[in-house]
Design a protein that fits this description.
With 700 residues, the protein is of the alpha/beta class. Helices cover 27% and strands 24% of the residues.
Length: 700
C-alpha cells in the first residue's frame, strides 16, 4: 500500500503531497511516548486518512499527515524510488472531509496546504521529533498529552443558566425549523434574519436535538469569548453531557480533552469560537454560526479564512446543513448564492422593540453641556437608578483618553513601533499602544517644546466608569473591556456580577453589545456613535449600523419596556437613521448602490497583500516588484485590476514598515490562485514578509 503524505512544513513551495510506501512492518514509534505506534502489520490494515507519520524528506526525518491511501503508486512515479513510512504517531487526527476542505482553503486564501490542514489538528498540539537518549534513535513524541485531563471542561466555565423548552414556538421559529429540516441542494444554507429576542437560540437547540436523535453531530459557533459562558450554559442545560466547549481561554489540557471527546464521539455537540469549526466531528449534520455578521469569524493570521465560507465548504463535503443567524446579517451573507432566508420579525415575548432616541451632541455643546452624558441620557439614567433597574452603556473605545495633546505646539505621543497615537490609561497612569501593547510613562512636560499643558482628548471606558462613579456614587458599575477581562474567567466573573446586581450599570466596548440576555435591562445608552463611522473603511457604515442595532436589542427583553439613547455628532448618517427609524431595507439598498458604484463587495471581490519589513526601503521595493508582476500580461484574471502599492493605513506596526496592494475584480473571480502564482514567481527577499488576505474584512 502507498500513502500520499503532506509534509508538515508551512511553505508555499511544498503544496503537494509526496508518495511513501506503507511497509508490512513499519518502524514503531517510541513505546514510552504519549501515544505508541501501531505494531507491525497492524498499521497497514488500519492505514487511514488523518494519520500522523514520520518520514524521510530531504535527508532528514520529518512529520507528515496521510491525505490519501492507495494500492498503487501514482502514474509517473518509480516504485523503486519510493521511501517507506518510518513510524506512526497517532491517528486519525482529522476526518476525510478535512483534506478537500483544506485544499479549498489553500487555493482560495493563497495559503500553504500544510498550514491549511493544520487547522484540523488537535488544538495546541503538534508532534515533534526527539532523539532517544538511550538508543540514539529518532522518535516521535506528543508534548503534553501525558498530562491531559480525562475530565471535560471544568464546570466553572459554564455559568449557571437555563434553557426551558417553551410551550409553543412563534410563527417565525416554526418556519425556521421547517426550512432547516427541508433545505436541499449543494449550498444547504439557511439564514435566520431575526430581530434581537426573536428566539433564534431556541431554533438552534431544537434543530440540534433533531440531529442528535438521528445519530448525528453539530457545531455551534459564537463570535466572542464573552458570549461563550451564557451560550454554553443554555446548550448544556438542554443537551447535557453531549456538549463540549472549545475556545482559547481554556487551558491546553482542557481544550485537548474537549477535542478528544469529540473525536471519539463521547460528545456530539461542540460550542465555541471560530476554531471549533475544525473539531473532528463524527457524522456531522448541522453547523450553526450565531451572530454571523461579526468580524471575529475572519481569521487574522494565515490562512486568513472566513468561518462562514469554510463552513459552506464543510457542509458541501459532509451534506450538513449550515444555519447562519443574526439580527443584522452582513451584506456579504445576504448576497450568497443558494441561500434561503427566513425572517423572524418579532420577539417571542411579544414585547415591542425598544424606543430609540438620537441625540445630536452638537446641540448639547451649543447649549453649554460639556459632559459625556447628554441631558436626555442623564435624566434616563437617573430614572433607572431611582427605579432600581439596570442599564448598559456602550463606548467602543477602552482607556481613559484617546490621546494626549500639547496645547502649545500640538505634539501627540506616538508608539515607537507603530504609527499610531498612544492611549492614556488613568488607573495605571501610563500610555499604551493598543496594537503592540507597548507601555510608556506619561510625560510631565511636552517632549517637543517643554510645555506643561498636556491635555487628554477623547474618552474611553475607564473615564466613563469614573464619570458614573462621580454622578452616582451609590450605583455599582461593571466595566467590561479588553483591560478588565484579561484574566482567566474574566468575562464570566463580570457577567455574573452584573447578573446578580439588583440595580447597576454594565459599561464597556463592543463585547457587551451582542448575545447577552439580561431581562432586567431597561436602558441602553451609546456614548459616541460616531467612532466607527470615521474609520477609513468602506464597511464603516454597515459596522456602525450592526453595532448600534445589536446593543439596542439588549434593552426591554423583560416585562419593562426598553429605551435606547444614541449620542452622536452625525445624526443624519444613514446608519444611525436606520437604527432610529427601523428602516433596514432602505439602509441596505443605499449601501449596495454605493458599493456597486465604487466596486466593493458584495458586488466585487478584493484581495489585499501587505508587505512588511523593518527596513522601509526593502518593503517598498518588494511591493513595487509585486505591483509590476500583477500588472504583467495575463497575471490576473479578466476584469481584475491592481491598486498600489501604497503605505498601509497603519504604515508601521510592531516595528515593521508596511505597504499594501489591493486586487479588485468582479464578484465571480478567484484572486487567490493569481496571488499565489505571482508570489511563487517573485520570492520575497530575506527580511521581507508578505501577508495575503482574500476577501478582507478590514484594510488597516
Amino acid at each position: 500500500m502507498y500513502a500520499s503524505v503532506l509534509i508538515d512544513v508551512p511553505t508555499r513551495a511544498l503544496d503537494a503531497p509526496f508518495t511513501y510506501a506503507i511497509p508490512d512492518a513499519p518502524r514503531p514509534a517510541d513505546r514510552n511516548a504519549s501515544y505508541a505506534s501501531n505494531t507491525a502489520g497492524e498499521y497497514e490494515r488500519s492505514a487511514a486518512v488523518g494519520d500522523a507519520v514520520a518520514v524521510t524528506f530531504n535527508n532528514r526525518v520529518v512529520i507528515g499527515y496521510i491525505v490519501a491511501v492507495s494500492d498503487a503508486v501514482p502514474a509517473g512515479v518509480d516504485p523503486d524510488t519510493v521511501l517507506p513510512v518510518l513510524a506512526v504517531c497517532h491517528g486519525p487526527w482529522f476526518r476525510d472531509y478535512a483534506v478537500p476542505v483544506a485544499r479549498r482553503i489553500s487555493e482560495h486564501y493563497a495559503a500553504p496546504l500544510s498550514e491549511s490542514l493544520r487547522l484540523f489538528l488537535p488544538p495546541g498540539r503538534k508532534p515533534v521529533l526527539r532523539t532517544d537518549k538511550l538508543t540514539g534513535a529518532r522518535v516521535l513524541r506528543m508534548p503534553g498529552l501525558r498530562r491531559r485531563k480525562a475530565a471535560d471542561v471544568p464546570a466553572r466555565t459554564l455559568r449557571a443558566g437555563k434553557a426551558p423548552r417553551p410551550e409553543r414556538l412563534s410563527t417565525g421559529q416554526t418556519a425556521a425549523l421547517a426550512a432547516i429540516d427541508h433545505v436541499s441542494g449543494t449550498a444547504r444554507t439557511v439564514l435566520l434574519d431575526g430581530v434581537t429576542g426573536s428566539g433564534k437560540t431556541e431554533v438552534y437547540l431544537q434543530a440540534i436535538e433533531h440531529v442528535l436523535a438521528n445519530g448525528g453531530s453539530s457545531i455551534v459557533l459564537v463570535p466572542e469569548i464573552s458570549l461563550t459562558p451564557q451560550t454554553c450554559a443554555r446548550f448544556s442545560d438542554r443537551l447535557g453531557e453531549t456538549v463540549a466547549v472549545m475556545h482559547s481561554r481554556l487551558t491546553p489540557a482542557e481544550r485537548f480533552a474537549a477535542w478528544e471527546r469529540l473525536r471519539t464521539g463521547d460528545a456530539r455537540v461542540v460550542v465555541g469560537a471560530r476554531s471549533a469549526l475544525f473539531a473532528p466531528m463524527q457524522d456531522l449534520r448541522l453547523i450553526v454560526i450565531d451572530e454571523e455578521h461579526d468580524d471575529s469569524y475572519k481569521n487574522g493570521q494565515a490562512p486568513r479564512y472566513h468561518a462562514r465560507d469554510v463552513a459552506r465548504h464543510i457542509a458541501a463535503e459532509t451534506g450538513a446543513t449550515l444555519v447562519l443567524g443574526s439580527a443584522t446579517p452582513s451584506l456579504d451573507t445576504r448576497a450568497l448564492p443558494g441561500i434561503r432566508v427566513v425572517r423572524l420579525p418579532e420577539r417571542v415575548t411579544g414585547n415591542r422593540l425598544p424606543q430609540v432616541t438620537v441625540v445630536d451632541m452638537t446641540d448639547e455643546f451649543a447649549g453649554g453641556n460639556r459632559a459625556m452624558f447628554s441631558r436626555q441620557l442623564t435624566d434616563a439614567l437617573q430614572r433607572v437608578h431611582d427605579a432600581g433597574e439596570k442599564a448598559i452603556l456602550l463606548l467602543n473605545r477602552r482607556g481613559f483618553a484617546q490621546f494626549l495633546l500639547c496645547r502649545e505646539c500640538g505634539y501627540v505621543p506616538h508608539c515607537e513601533a507603530c504609527s499610531v497615537s498612544l492611549t492614556y490609561h488613568a488607573t495605571q497612569n501610563h500610555l499604551r499602544c493598543h496594537h503592540c501593547d507597548a507601555i510608556y510613562p506619561v510625560p510631565q512636560t511636552c517632549p517637543r517644546c517643554g510645555s506643561i499643558y498636556l491635555r487628554q482628548f477623547g474618552a474611553g471606558t475607564q473615564r466613563l466608569a469614573d464619570e458614573l462613579a462621580l454622578r452616582w456614587p451609590d450605583w455599582q458599575a461593571i466595566r467590561m473591556d479588553a483591560d478588565t477581562t484579561t484574566g482567566r474567567g474574566g468575562h464570566v466573573q463580570l457577567l455574573a456580577q452584573f447578573e446578580q446586581l439588583k440595580s447597576g450599570v454594565l459599561l464597556g466596548t463592543q463585547m457587551i453589545a451582542k448575545g447577552h440576555d439580561f431581562p432586567d435591562v431597561t436602558l441602553v445608552g451609546v456614548i459616541t456613535a460616531d467612532i466607527s463611522l470615521n474609520v477609513p473603511d468602506f464597511r464603516a457604515g454597515e459596522r456602525t449600523w450592526q453595532l448600534l442595532q445589536q446593543v439596542a436589542g439588549r434593552a426591554g427583553r423583560g416585562q419593562v419596556p426598553g429605551r435606547v439613547i444614541i449620542q452622536t455628532y452625525w445624526p443624519e448618517h444613514r446608519a444611525i437613521r436606520a437604527v432610529e427609524t427601523g428602516c433596514t431595507d432602505d439602509f441596505i439598498a443605499a449601501e449596495l448602490q454605493i458599493r456597486e458604484q465604487l466596486g466593493y463587495p458584495p458586488t466585487a471581490r478584493l484581495c489585499e497583500l501587505v508587505v512588511a519589513s523593518v527596513n522601509a526601503a526593502d518593503a517598498r521595493s518588494y511591493a513595487e516588484t509585486l505591483g509590476k508582476a500583477f500588472r504583467a500580461d495575463e497575471a490576473l484574471p479578466d476584469g481584475m485590476t491592481v491598486l498600489g502599492p501604497a503605505p498601509a493605513v497603519i504604515a508601521k506596526l510592531k516595528g515593521k514598515y508596511r505597504y499594501h496592494l489591493l486586487l479588485k475584480g468582479p464578484a465571480d473571480c478567484e484572486p487567490g490562485p493569481a496571488a499565489l502564482a505571482t508570489l511563487r514567481a517573485n520570492r520575497a527577499p530575506r527580511g521581507v514578509s508578505v501577508a495575503v488576505d482574500v476577501d478582507p474584512t478590514r484594510n488597516l
